[in-house]
Write a structure and sequence with these properties.
Layout (H helix, E strand, L loop, with lengths): L7 H20 L6 H22 L8 H11 L6 H11 L8 H8 L4 H14 L7
Helix pairs in contact: 1-2, 3-4, 3-6
Length: 132
């Protein structure tokens, strides 16, 4: 007996094929009404969404801290701006007294190398988090 679950694309293809079949039968007058077909399709979508959520590992999302580190190190904002600013302020002590607006203007003048050096060890440690 095969206990392996079908892949999400296979589930989706199957759901689409069944929905098309129901729709075609409905148009031809063979089978459920269009309303019943839509209700069936929505139920299938809900089941697919639930299966998708259940199949994803729980630790696939970045933490607030990880998003702040990635944003500071790479310059690509992948979390909340405020969290990244607070992280940068914690890593570069001379910026700790600035408010967010002042820091926004000053960030343009901070050498990339300085920001990279201040955040590199945290950035590299992200891949090791949770592997104990």
């Amino acid at each position: 007996m095969n206990d392996q679950k079908p892949s999400q694309p296979a589930i989706l293809e199957s759901a689409v094929a069944r929905a098309e079949n129901v729709l075609n039968n409905s148009k031809a007058g063979n089978g459920p009404s269009l309303l019943e077909a839509l209700i069936s399709a929505y139920a299938r979508i809900a089941l697919l969404e639930q299966a998708t959520k259940e199949s994803q590992p729980e630790n696939t999302k970045l933490t607030v801290r990880q998003a702040a580190i990635i944003g500071a190190y790479t310059g690509v904002l992948c979390g909340d701006w405020v969290d990244m600013v607070e992280y940068i302020k914690s890593k570069i002590p001379r910026l700790s007294n600035l408010d967010r607006v002042e820091l926004l203007h000053i960030l343009a003048y901070i050498p990339e190398k300085e920001l990279e050096e201040a955040t590199k060890s945290d950035f590299l440690s992200i891949s090791n988090e949770g592997q104990s």
